Amino acid sequence: MEQPAPISDPSGALPGSPRLRDRLTIPVLAYGGILMAVMQTVVVPLLPDLPRLTGSSPGAVSWTVTATLLSGAVLTPVLGRAGDMYGKRRVLTSALALMTLGSVMCALSSDIAVLITARALQGAAASVVPLSISILRDELPPERRGSAVALMSSTVGIGAALGLPLAALVIQYADWHTMFWLTSALGALGVGAVWWAVRESPVREPGRFDVPGALGLAAGLVCLLLGVSQGSQWGWTGPRVLGLFAGSVVVLALWWWQQLRAARPLVDLRLVSRPRVGLSHVAALLTGFAFYANTLVTAQLVQAPKATGYGLGLSIVQTGLCLLPGGVTMLLFSPLSARISAARGPRVTLALGAAVIACGYMVRIADSRDLWMVILGATVVATGTTLAYSALPTLILRAVPAAQTASANGVNVLMRTIGQAVSSAAVAAVLVHHSSPLGGASVPTLHGYLLAFAMAAAVALVACAAALSIPGDDGQGSTTRVRADAREARDQALEEA
After folding, report:
1. pLDDT, tens digit (0-9, with 9 covering 90-100), for 421-456
2. Rounded distance, CA 241 to CA 445, Å?
3. Backbone dihedral angles phi then psi of residue 443, each to the nearest 5 degrees
C-alpha cells in the first residue's frame, strides 16, 4: 500500500513569524471561502447580455452556470478525499489555483466554449470550504474551533451577497472582461496567502486513491444534476432527461456496490450509514434547497416590472444591495451559532436555523410588495441559513474520525449542492406554471412567488424535523472525544512520517 510523503516539519517550510501566520490562518481561509462564493456569483449579472457578447444562444450561455455546478459537485468529494490522503493545504491551493486559472481564461476570451471550460475549472473551488474546515479541526484548539468553523461555513452566503453587487458595478462601468481580471488578481492573492499562512496538516489517511470510485461518482452525479438542471429546457418527460435519471440510478447503484467492497473507498459508506452522519447529510440537502430559493426568488421578484402590480423594477445593482444585509447578517451571527452549538449541541443549532428559515419565508408570504419587508424576510432567511450551515460541519466533525473530515465534509457540501440544484429546478417549474402575459412576454405571478416561498418553508420544516432526529450528544463529552480522536490521529501520522 502506498504511503504519502512524510512531513518532517510542516511549519518550517513557511517563512515569516509563526505567531503572525497562526493569527492569519482563520482570516485567510475565510477569504478563500468568500472568494469561492464570489466567483460562483459574478457571472449572474452577465447572463442576459452574454448571448450578444459571445455570439451564442441563451441555451449555450446557461452552461456557464451549469458547468460550474456539475464540476463543483463532482470535484468536492474527490478533492476532499485527496486532501485527507495527500495534504489538505496542498489540495486547497490547487483548487484555488484552478479557480484563478479559470478566471484568467474568462478574462482573455469571448468564445463561449472557452468560457464554459473556464467555468468548469472554477467549480474546483467548491471544495475550499470543506478542506478549510478540516484544516481548522486539525490546527485549532477545541475552544477556538467552533467559532472558526461557523465563520467558515458562513462565507458561502457572505461571498454570494458581495459578489452580485460587485459584479454588477464593474459590468456597469467597465468592460465585462475587467471583472474577470479583478477576480484573477483576487484569486492569485488567495493562493499566495494560503500557501504562506496555512500550515500543512500532518493528519493523513494513507492508501491508494480510489480511481474507479471517483469515476463512478462523477458519472452518476453528472447524469443526475444534468437532468435536474436541464429538465425545464429539455422537458421533464423527454427521452434525454428520463435517460439521464435512469442512467444516474444505475451508475450510482453500481458505485455504491463498489464502494462497499473497496479497501480504501472514496466515500466511506459505513460512516454514512451512521444516523449522526446520514441524517446530517439529509438535513444538508434539505437546507440547501430551502436556502437557495431565497436568492433565486428575491432577485427575480424585485426586478419584476412595476406593471405587474407587485414588482419593484430594480436594477441588478439595486438587487444586489437588497441581498447585501443578509450577507452582513451571516457574518455577524456566525459567532452566535458557535455559542449555541457549544451550549446546546449542533443539532439544536441546525434545527433552530431551519425553523428560522421557515419563519423568514412566512414573512415573505405575509408581504412581498414593500421593499423593506422583502429585505427583512430575506435577511431572516439568511440568519437561519447561518445557524444551519454553521452547525452542519460541526456535526460531521464530531461524528467522523479526524483522518476523514475533509472527505466527509465534502460529501456534506455535495448534498447542499444537490439541494440547491433541485431547488433551482423546482422554483423554475413553479414560476413557469404560474405565469401570465405582460407586454408580449410571460412573467411569473405574485401567486407563483408565494407558492415558491411556501414550498421552501415546508422543506425547511422537514429539515428541522431531520435535525431533531439526529442522535444527540452530550456537548463536553463529545468535545473531549473529538479532541482525543484528533490527538490520536495526529500522533499516528507523525509516527508514520
Report:
1. 888 888 888 888 888 887 777 788 889 999 999 999
2. 27
3. -125, 150
Question: Which of 116, 122, 110 has the alpha carbon at shortest distance from 54?
Answer: 110
Residues whose CB is less than 8 angstroms from the CB of residue 473 and which lie 6 or more positions away in sequence, other chains included:
345, 346, 347, 398
3-class SS at 444?
strand
Query: 94 and 86 in contact (C-beta within 8 Å)?
Result: no
Closest CA to 466 of 291, 279, 290: 279
Contact 224, 252 (CB under 8 A): yes
Check pLDDT > 50 for residue 492: no
The three cell numbers locating residue 253: 447503484
pLDDT at res. 226: 87
Whether residue 43 contacts residue 160, with contact meaning beta carbons closer than 8 Å, is answered with: no
Cβ proximity of 99 and 125 under 8 Å: yes
Q: Are 328 and 161 in contact (CB under 8 A)?
A: yes
User: Which of 191, 203, 208, 204 has its CA nearest to residue 128?
Assistant: 191
Pairing of strands 435-438, 441-444: antiparallel
Measure the CA–CA gap between 487 and 479, rounded to whole angstroms: 12
Q: How far apart are CA 61 and CA 386, in angstroms?
A: 31
Q: Distance between CA 323 and CA 311 in Å, rounded?
A: 16
Q: pTM for this structure? A: 0.81
Q: What three-state secondary structure class fits 205?
A: coil
Of 172-186, 260-274, 461-475, the range with the highest mean pLDDT is: 172-186
